Amino acid sequence: MYSSATVIGGTTKKPTAGRWGIVIAALLLQFSIGAVYAWSVFSSALQSPDAMGLTNPEASLPFTVTIGMIFIGSYIGGRIQDKKGPRPVALSGGIIYGFGCILASFALSHDNTQLWLLILGYGVISGFGLGLAYIVPIAMLQKWFPDKRGLITGLAVAGFGFGAVLTAPIAQWLIAMTPTEPNRAFLPLGIGYLVLALIGAAFFRNPSAGYTVPGWVPASTGKAHDSYKQFTEKEALRTPQWYFLAAILTLNVTVGIALVAQANSSAIDIAGYSIGGAAALVGVLALFNGGGRVFWAWVSGKTGRMTTFGLMLGLQGVCLLVIPHASNAVLFFVLAAIVYLCFGAGSARCLQRRATSSESNTLVRSMDS
How confident is the model at residue 201, as a pLDDT? Predict the structure, then answer.
């Protein structure tokens, strides 16, 4: 066990030294893979008759596949991380994610004959790499910050949500350079994602065995103490709670993705935004995607998690019913911001549970937790 400090080479070094540097490294990775939420900028460009001329469902398909692959990648990544540690998993995820984006840049046909290449590169490959990488920082940082679990988890998932803030306007600028071949923008973006992910992941490591935070004592009572029964995978699959939680996640993601995949074109077609204004809107909405992960975590601490999920799903449903009729630009923004605020929190919370439980091979605890 560590004491309050460790003596190395005659100098005293705190066991927590450098842990905030690992937070910065984690955010670099999260920013790069969080760029996925800027997809609607590409969706609008790909529907142009001068480009691939895709229909709305076709333009949404690569992003839909990406979201599906995230959960596959995160499940596998969590298991590998338990055995190999965070760095190899994060590095592999970053490389696969960047490679998939680069591959998508070669889908340059002016019709939909190369849609399969876009789905393969951006959807299957990048989505899988994203899932591998996403799960790592959350689990790793919770080990470094047992004294600040709420804060550090909020930072980790918010970093992912904020990834599209800069990517959306940059992607629009790159697309404007070659509007008839918008997928070319994936090449510089993919390279940028790869560099950021590799730099960040290179610093990943778990704390040494016996790591403790000097002066911090785990809570044994109160809200910070988790006294709920934990389940193994097999036990969890025999409980109705697991299926209720899976249904909640599915509903939340389905509702959120319905807007996220079409936010850019919807802003143009429904509320009359310009092309540049719609791209800026997508970037601003990413702030709500990231901020919602922190805001709703705070709300759940006040109301309970199931009540919070009910509020989020209800708000999303109402907003999606009204958005098609929101011709006013301000109203459209408010409604879309609420959807993003709820979507980011719901998907992040469910994935966080997987990260939290990866070491002990548990998936659910209680519907009340």
Answer: 95
How far is CA 176 from its chain centroid? 27
Which of 115, 108, 111, 105 is closest to 53 using CA atoms?
Answer: 111
pLDDT at 366: 35
- Which pLDDT band, with edges at 50, 70 and 90, does 240 fall under? confident
* Number of helical (H) and strand (E) elements in the chain, helices listed first: 15, 2
Residue 347's pLDDT is 62
How far apart CA 369 and CA 77 sit, in angstroms, is 24
Q: Report the run of H or E that residue 53 belongs to, with start and end.
A: none
Q: What is the largest CA-CA distance in the chain?
A: 69
Beta bridge partners of 6: 13
What CA–CA distance (Å, rounded) separates 52 from 50?
Answer: 7
Q: What per-residue confidence (pLDDT) applies to 130?
A: 94
Mean pLDDT calculated for residue range 252-268:
84
DSSP string computed for 214-239: TT----SSSTT---SPP-BHHHHTTS
Rounded CA-CA distance 138/144 in Å is 10
Triad 120, 199, 15: Cα angle to 5°: 130
Contact present, 102 and 111 (Cβ < 8 Å): no
Token pair listed for 249: 């996640």
Q: Which two tokens stand for residue 164?
A: 């599209």
Structure tokens at 52: 């691939």
- Give the tokens for residue 34: 């969080």
The pLDDT of residue 228 is 53
188's enclosing H/E stretch is: helix 186-201
For the record, the structure tokens of 23 come out as 């937070």
12 has a pLDDT exceeding 60: no
In degrees and rounded to multiples of 5, residue 178 shows phi and psi of -135, 70
Supply the pTM of this predicted model: 0.80
Full DSSP string of 36-90: GGGHHHHHHHHTSTTTT---HHHHHHHHHHHHHHHHHHHHHHHHHHHHH-HHHHH
The position carrying tokens 């920013």 is 31
CB burial of 181-202 (b: ≥16 within 10 Å; e: otherwise) equals bbbbbbbbbbebbbebbbebbe
CA 222 to CA 201: how far, in whole Å? Answer: 35
